[in-house]
Design a protein that fits this description.
four-stranded antiparallel β-sheet
Amino acid sequence: EVDTSQVLHCVVGPVEIDGDAHDWLQYRGRDWEALAQDRWVALGRRHLLGAVGGSVDIQLTFRDARGEASDGLADVCEIVHFEYASKCSPANTVFLNVFDLASAMSIPNAVLCNTVFNTFGAFHAAVEVYGEEWSFYRTPNPTCCGVCKSLRPRQHPVHVYRQSIPLGTTTLKDWEVRYLIRGKLATKWPGGGYD
């Protein structure tokens, strides 16, 4: 009789080649040997003391993409798929993207506002929907619109991305969201009103 039972441990932690800078979702076998390293998922910067920090939402799915002509049983690590939950969400999902105000604030924010303690910190926020991210900034001309579209969601030259919080879905179409922001809201949010 053939033993078809398989063990897949999913472990979060640093990896040697990364120099302990990031936490990774890793696949490990029955004896904790590394499996499918090409499918490991980087989850973000290593948390302070390895214990406190931001959170990452991931989605687990099981799917066999080998096709109908495949012989035998698939290895469990071939059919387990982890993906960032935001990438699996419908396009009309609205996210609040939270950033540390500056890189110097990352450690204080991790201590003051994390998965263990929720007190306060210094943050920047943006709203993302249909793959576009919008936020409010101070402008050199105080009468100019302070609502700006990011070049790439969750990336900023000064602010450090921390996490995305799903707020639900919108019933508006993508063009209706852009019209609402540019045509209706932008004029009511001059950059001089930012404090």
